[in-house]
Design goal:
Distance between the termini: 13 Å
CATH class of the largest domain: Alpha Beta
Number of domains: 2
Number of helices: 14
CATH architecture of the largest domain: 3-Layer(aba) Sandwich
Strand order of the largest sheet: 3-2-1-4-5-6-7
Number of strands: 13
Length: 377
């Protein structure tokens, strides 16, 4: 098949290399794997994007510079900056999305896969190309513009990233299938040994459960190393709820790390804490950790029960138990004998190799593509 993969986000650009933006790595891994499987693949993304597929790129200037507008006159400086960034980001998305669909029509692309943002829905109405849309977020509330948008485009072809996510969306939009994320197991190498600290990776927001993670490790008497996004460290939540609890050797906040260093960070952890407080659509860091052999302790929200095998690759905790439930799971894990702990690490890697590899991800997407192409044949 001729496949187009569209990710019209400025956050794919090198300027934002230190920002947590999971769709970038996922799309590029999908592109390269589909290419290896014999498909012709086009990636519509940021200039300088490293991919084995053919790259059709957006405008670098719209990534490097946020343009202002006379309409922002009278706003305070911070509001002007925020509005300039949003306006420029949307401009980039429109420009690259139009370029992508015109190119796809010219090249007779069999299927366009829109991997992020919403402008493609509108452009696809003007430039008809068979298209699927991956949903990365939980179901929006009725007062959100995204909810209106889903109702407006309810009959488009949506790919969900977990059965839980699909279930929560209900009949709001049409599902064309579920395709789990996959992890590059070479970049997240296995270690049977592990390390002596517990790990946390995620944005420093309430929904990620960072406060619950810190409370649990203090009560359990273990070390916690955290990795987050720099952008969230300046926000009140981090400044008031996270920063005061940091203490060297007990709870430490590491600088943001890229894919390669993230593998080392997870490989050397005793376990990953994933005390999610929302209906997590997937949770990429769980399969990254398990690829390294690192067990996961998580609250039972969203996709957690689809990703973790309770008692085999970690422990699933009832959210009603809060931090006390996390403490109980931490102590249970630490009570394992060394051979038992090594068996769990082996089980983590085997679970990923069976269910969450790049090949599995590509296979599942191929099935969805073929279904849609069949509709339009």
């Amino acid at each position: 098949m001729k496949i187009g993969l569209l990710l019209p986000s400025v956050y794919m650009g090198n300027k934002y290399k230190d920002k947590i933006f999971a769709p970038k790595e996922l799309l590029l891994n999908l592109a390269n794997t589909l290419l290896d499987r014999g498909h012709k693949v086009f990636v519509y993304g940021a200039p300088g994007t490293k991919t084995n597929a053919r790259l059709i790129q957006g405008h670098e200037e719209l990534i490097q510079r946020d343009f202002t507008s006379p309409k922002f006159r009278g706003l305070d400086r911070l509001s002007k900056l925020k509005n300039a960034h949003t306006a420029t980001k949307i401009e980039y998305e429109i420009d690259l999305s139009v370029k992508a669909f015109l190119h796809a029509r010219k090249e007779k692309v069999d299927i366009m896969h829109s991997y992020h943002d919403f402008m493609a829905h509108y452009i696809n109405k003007l430039i008809p190309v068979p298209t699927v849309y991956t949903i990365h977020d939980p179901r929006p509330r009725a007062e959100h513009i995204a909810y209106w948008r889903f109702k407006h485009f309810a009959r488009d072809n949506y790919i969900f990233i977990s059965k839980s996510q699909k279930r929560h969306y209900g009949r709001l939009i049409r599902s064309i299938g579920v395709a789990y994320h996959g992890v590059d197991t070479n970049k997240f190498p296995f270690s049977q040994k592990g390390g002596d600290y517990f790990a946390f990776i995620g944005r420093y927001i309430k929904e990620k459960g960072v406060v619950e993670a810190m409370s649990a490790v203090k009560e359990a008497g273990v070390r916690l190393k955290m990795v987050g996004d720099d952008a969230y460290r300046v926000l009140p939540y981090y400044q008031t709820r996270v920063l005061p609890q940091l203490k060297k050797g007990i709870i430490e906040d590491e600088t943001f790390i890229g894919e390669a260093d993230r593998g080392t960070f997870l490989k050397n952890a005793y376990a990953l804490l994933f005390p999610i407080l929302w209906e997590e659509p997937f949770g990429m860091v769980m399969i990254e950790a398990m690829s390294c052999g690192t067990p996961v302790i998580a609250f039972n929200h969203g996709s957690v029960s689809e990703v973790i095998k309770d008692g085999e690759t970690g422990y699933i905790v009832d959210p009603k138990e809060g931090a006390r439930g996390l403490v109980r799971a931490i102590k249970k894990l630490r009570s394992l004998s060394l051979p038992e702990y090594h068996l769990m690490r082996n089980a983590c890697r085997a679970h990923v190799e069976k269910n969450f590899t790049l090949q599995k991800m590509a296979e599942q997407h191929e099935k969805v593509y073929q279904k849609v192409v069949g509709f339009h044949a």
